[in-house]
Amino acid sequence: PPPWMKTKRQFHGDAHLRLECYAAWAHHFVRFVQEMSREGVPIWAVSVQNEPEAAQIWESCIYTAEEERDFVRDALGPALEDADLGEVKIVIW
To answer: Where does the record place the Glycosyl hydrolase family 30 TIM-barrel domain (predicted)?
Structure first.
């Protein structure tokens, strides 16, 4: 996520996605899948975050297992369903 969506408001390090940004970040996934489809690139799956427990010196975001579960359950899954993208799989770590 962009810095404004994260607890430490930075691209790198050990920041977490802010709860109040779950819906906006889920909308980003929806738009990505929709725009790729419009360009002829069907997306069959998305991943919440590569290495969700790794604080990096490059762009990263920390998700505990509970945070990843909650984001998928409360924001990403419903957003994909609402956009008629329920066939897109969600890969979790």
So the answer is: 2-92
